[in-house]
Amino acid sequence: MKKLILLAPVLFLITACGDSKYSTNDKNVVGQEISYSTDEITMNGYISQDENNFAKRPGVLVVHEWWGHDEHARRAADELAKLGYVALAVDMYGNGKQASHPDDAMKFSNNVMSNFDTAKARFNAALETLKNRGNVDSTKIGAIGYCFGGSVILAMANSGSDLDGVAAFHAGLQLPVMPQDSLSSRILILNGADDPFVTEEQVANLTGAYEELGADYQYINYDGAQHAYTNPAADSLGQKFDLPLAYNAQADSLSWEEMKGFLNETFSGDEAEK
């Protein structure tokens, strides 16, 4: 199994960026709103796919930042659909709720993550919704997540969720569930080396736990990248609320290419056992 921590300067990183074998004609990609629910709440997601491709293909969940289900997550779902996947941008807060201020974002995210059973029920509702799509191969399911969403998918994988692989972008590493024996997912963590919300101790604790389990993981740091480096709105949000957020186009591009190679390898079953 891979047990690799890669510190990757943005200027010098060479990524594995082959096109997905599931690639499609992006002119056929369409997205639509979709509702699903748990016993407690209705969630308003967004699913994107090639409307003219009826073959079964892998499905990928997209979990939003702490601001809530928004255009950033939906754009990612559309881009994944262009690669040939069926992508569901999930709604972890319920009712499509979004935060307009960091105080609300913190409250919404804490409400979910402080009760992991609730978080898992909401995540699993999205997971089953995706698996039950007629054009999704339910044996090939992955997830990506941003910020809060990165923490969500790592916690879900750590707890043994049925996910082939997860790719977390600028994820917080103070997780409600650390890696358990039931962990079977491949793990890719794509963080900014200049992210003040992630400490060396947190990185060491998490990667050490993966090492102890013999998990298949990679941890990649991008030099010069801060928190929320994939979100073009990060600069304005950081300035507005005096937060250390910044978009980094190069890290955004490199990390997306890294994710593409990771998903392609995961779903192709070609990952090397090391």
Q: N- to C-terminal separation?
A: 4 Å
On the 0 to 100 scale, the average pLDDT is 90
The CATH architecture comes to 3-Layer(aba) Sandwich
Radius of gyration: 17 Å
What's the structural domain tally? 1
The 3D shape can be described as globular
H/I helix tally? 7
* Counted beta strands: 9
The main sheet comes to: 9 strands, mixed
CATH H-tier superfamily = Alpha/Beta hydrolase fold, catalytic domain
What does this structure look like?
The chain has about 270 residues and is an alpha/beta fold. The protein has one domain (about 5-270): Alpha/Beta hydrolase fold, catalytic domain (Rossmann fold), CATH 3.40.50.1820. Helix content is about 35%, strand content about 25%. The chain has 7 helices and 9 strands, in the order E-E-E-E-H-E-H-H-E-H-E-E-H-E-H-H. It has a 9-stranded mixed β-sheet, with helices on both faces.
Give a quick rundown of the structure.
Residues 44-266 form the Dienelactone hydrolase domain. This protein is α/β, with parallel strands linked by helices and 274 residues long. 34% of the residues lie in helices and 23% in strands.
Considering the chains and any ligands shown, give keywords for the structure.
274 residues, alpha/beta, Rossmann fold, 9-stranded mixed β-sheet, globular, AB_hydrolase_fold, hydrolase, Dienelactone hydrolase family protein, Dienelactn_hydro
